[in-house]
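Dear support,

Our group has been running a series of protein-ligand predictions, and this particular one with LLP is the one our PI (initials K.S.) wants archived with full inputs and outputs. We had some confusion internally about which version of the output was final, so please treat the block below as the authoritative record. The input we submitted was:
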Amino acid sequence: AQGVERGDDGALRVAGADVREIAEAHGTPAYVMDETDFRSRARAFAAAFAPADVFYAGKSFLCTTVARWLVEEGLGIDVSTGGELAVALAAGVPGEKLLLHGNNKSVAELRRAVAAGVGRIVVDSFEEIDRLAEVAREAGVQQAVLVRVTLGVEAHTHEFIATAHEDQKFGFSVSAGDAEEAVRRVLAAPALELRGLHSHIGSQIFDTSGFEIAARRLLSLHAKIQRDNGIVLPEADLGGGFGIAYTTADDPSTPQELAKGLREIVERECEQLDIAVPHLAVEPGRAIVGPTTFTLYEVGTVKQVALDAGARRQYVAVDGGMSDNIRTALYDASYSATLASRSSSAPPALSRIVGKHCESGDVVVKDEFLPADVQAGDLLAVPGTGAYCRSMASNYNAVPRPPVLAVRDGQVQVLLRRETDDDLLRLDPGAGPQGAA
Ligand code: LLP
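Confirmed final output from the archive:
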C-alpha cells in the first residue's frame, strides 16, 4: 500500500497507524487497507479513462463501504452474482451504476437485477438471452444488454495467445458465428435493448498487445454487426485484467498509459472502419484494490528444514494461510513478505512463509529473504493482497476468515469483521447450546 513506511523504531506504519497497535486491537491475521490509496487508485482510473465508464470488478473485493467509496469516486461496479449484487444494493449503489456478469445467472438473479434496474446485463449464452427476455417482459421493462464475445485472444500473466478458437466457458464465439447469432436473437427480443459487445481476455496482464488485438477484433465485429443489421451500437466494453506488481519483477502500466494506449487503438481502428467511436467501458478490479492492502500475520513457529543438498530452508509459519490467500497454492502466484513489527540487522535467510492448514501446499510466499532472527511473535506483512484474497477466502479447517480493516489518518475502520467460531457453528443445526458459548 502506498501509505506504508517504517517508524523510528523500525515497525511498519500504514496511513499513520502502527501495525503493532492494529494487531493488538484487531488481532491477526488481518487484511489492512489504505483507504486513501484505494480512493486515489479508483479516482485515477476514472480520470484516466473518462469519458469511458469504469466499472470496478466487485469479484476482486467488495463490501458496502468500498462500494460507497467507488460511487463517490465516480466509478460503477461490475457484479457477477446475486450475492455481489446484494452487497452493492445494500450499499445503496444505484442500479444504473451496476453491470451484471456471469456465465450461468439464475432466473432469480436475473429477476433481482432487472428489478433493481441494473444498468447493463452482459448476456453469455443463448438460454440466457431467452430467460432474460422473459424476465424483462414480465417486469414490463426493456433491459439494456451487452453481448459477451470470445475473440480468440487469451491473455495470461506476461503473455497472450491469439488462437482461432477458445476452449472455455465464457461468451459467444466470434469465429463460429455464435456472436452474430446472439446479436440477432437479442435484436429480435422486444424486451431487450442491445447496447454493444463485451470482451474480457484475462487477468494480471502486462502485455498490452493482447488488449490491442482484442480491441481491433471487437471493433471489426462491432462494425460488421452495425452494417449487416443497419443499427448503431452505442457502446463497447473491453473488460478488465490490468496487471499489478506482486514482486519487483512486475512492471505494470499506469492507468494513464493504459487509457491512452486503448483510446489510440480504438480511434485509429474506428477511423479505418469508418464508424463512430463507441462509448467505452473497462472493468478493472485487481489494479484498483490489489496494491492497497497487505495481510498482517503473526509468526508462530520457525523451522529450519533440511534440503537435499545439505542446505536448510527457513519455514516461517504464520497464523493464517491458504484460507486467506489461496492464490499461491492455486495459481503458483508470487508474493513478497517483510518483517513488520521491528527492524532487524540479522543476515537474510531464504524463507518460505507457510500457513497453519493441514496440508503441505499451504504456502503463502514461496521464497523470500527474511532476517535469520525472525521468531514467534513477530508480525509479517504480505503486500498486494487486496484483490482475490478476502474474496476467495475459505473456512478450510474451520478457520474463521480474517477482518478487512481500512486505515486513514491513523484511524482504523472495520470494513468486514473477523468471523468467529460462532459464525461457523451458526450454520450447523447440530451444534448444541455449548456451540454458542
Ligand atoms: N471483467 C470480467 C468479465 C472478469 O471476468 C474479470 C475477472 C474482471 C473484469 C476483472 O479482472 P481484473 O481487472 O481484476 O484482473 N481469481 C483470479 C482472477 C480471476 C479473474 C476473473 N475475472 C486471481 O486471483 O488472479
